[in-house]
């Protein structure tokens, strides 16, 4: 039997690679997608071989991640429950897609992942696999009772790694899990499970990797200009950039100014609430600037239609339905809405916040001559027309009041 494992070199996958190999008497192939982990990728080949893998694929998917996953999601304005920029969620369908491709090429009988039976990632991986390779078996050790019996908690897994001589970042001195990619870093479990714990307190500063605390950010604001074409950022401060370069540049700038930190209790797809802490410096700037660009280029009703679909789109990404037909249909609508989202937004970065400092577009629908409170030289808007507009919109309210009485509304 040959099994392809989604491998990060972290605590869970370091343990379960050898466990799966022994349980299934299988040849293990490890796969690690470089979606922006940076230093976390060092030493993976040696570690995977030591743990029992016959081969490892380490592939740089960062450009594809930025271009085909992060940017389309940003065009949709997707944010989950008003706070989460979906950093972990959006990486999973790309990783699953490449896993399926490698599994096919290697003649694997199954793919495996280290997502827990309580989390969202198990759903995301397996829904993607179901859509792309419905005949491929998926192995999920955390849903295997014998695995849970051997490793009831993080301590047992850490002890196992120490005994096996496998270096891992997790320890009892730093009992939380971390997931990093080009869009964000997430922190959860361990000390993060107490929602009263202040993750941003001075004593916890060492945990954060992408951003400084806002109070430690520069005292002087920094201004940057983001140029958009069809809803995608194509340049920063006049310099043309690829999607990957955009994300890397914004991460650096946002991190410098302490932007994009989020601490939230969210609703997992599997039914429970969980607490997560996130750093999304570049994504927060891009999300904000994109919305500002839309504000002067998108037709009102088109914007409101798209905005009404944001919760659904974000929920689809969060829950793992990236390859579902309804997400693809929504993306087609989003793409249509972005055709005129062109221009430049000037943003001020200061102490953890983004402020708009200017917008301009060749497709701007904002006309100061029409919007002015002074006399309208274009005569495009006759204020007398507002009387009829109000009367017509008030008609149903008046009828309701006559029939049911206005006292029922108070």
TrEMBL record:
List of residues binding ATP: 6-14, 33, 114
Superkingdom of source: Bacteria
InterPro entries linked: Arginosuc_syn_C, Arginosuc_syn_N, Arginosuc_synth, Arginosuc_synth_CS, Arginosuc_synth_type_1_subfam, AS_cat/multimer_dom_body, Rossmann-like_a/b/a_fold
Alphabetic keyword roster: Amino-acid biosynthesis, Arginine biosynthesis, ATP-binding, Cytoplasm, Ligase, Nucleotide-binding
Pathway annotation from the record: Amino-acid biosynthesis; L-arginine biosynthesis; L-arginine from L-ornithine and carbamoyl phosphate: step 2/3
Keyword Chloroplast among UniProt keywords: no
Binding positions (L-aspartate): 116, 120-121
GO cellular component, one term: cytoplasm
Family: Belongs to the argininosuccinate synthase family. Type 1 subfamily.
Designated name of the protein: Argininosuccinate synthase
Gene that encodes it: argG
